[in-house]
Amino acid sequence: MSWSFRRQLFIILLLCLVFAGVVFAYVAPIIFQAPTCSDHKQNGTETGVDCGGGCVNLCTSDVKKPTILWYRSFLISDDVYNAVAYIENQNSAAITAMPYEFRLYDTKGTYITRVDGTAMIPPSGRYAIIETGIKTGTAIVGTTTFEWKTPTVSWQHIAPNISSLRIGTSDISLNTSSSTQRLLVTVNNKSPIIPLKNVQVAAILYDKDDNAVSVSKTYIHELTAGGNLPIYFTWPRPFANPVVRYEIIPIIDVFSTGAIK
Predict the structure, then answer these.
(1) Which pTM was predicted?
(2) C-beta neighbour count of 63 within 10 angstroms
(3) What is the separation of C-alpha 58 from the centre of its chain, rounded to a whole number of angstroms?
(4) Percent helix, strand and coil across the chain, each rounded to 5?
(5) Tell me: the pLDDT tens digits for 156-197?
């Protein structure tokens, strides 16, 4: 083997090594990439595909489906109803938007209309999903159904400081002396440092037998830290039964407070 041939061979091998090094530098991060919670694989500390372990999302096997305790519709005016589903979440986790469906039927069981929506599910507690202003024409609602449309929506961990996010209520009064029924409530952000945004407040009214008489809801764009705010709910006609108890349910949007783990 001549000296010139050996030199050419050395140069070729050197170029091959340089080329192989460049290819490896490009391919290695793809082949040996660190596990993430969005790589569509079960790896790292995950207990499922992109869930559990150190991931924000919980695996479906680690949570319980929210319990639907009851649902009803209430006549608000001649052809308008409000529908409510009373829900309990036993998980210390939340969902950004859970799809659901209300269906309304007349007194003979004939289908009238359907209302689709999505609801944020707050952690650990009971809350209400309310649809207002449902028009039924001349039909009188006899029964209402409610169901989840997509039970596989991802649950997310909530940071420990979520326990400090509370809304209190006071100065509750119901005025039924006029044609419009009006419920006044003062809400208070119990956190001295965290303002709350996009708060939904539901109101459920009960008679002496603890049966729901009517429902309504309102929204608070922002409730300052430690702040108080008077809100009100109205109904355009008298209630079927006298109201003796009120349940005011503030629903805090934990996803707008930085409370996610």
Answers:
(1) 0.81
(2) 16
(3) 15
(4) 15, 50, 35
(5) 888 777 756 889 999 999 998 888 999 999 999 998 888 998
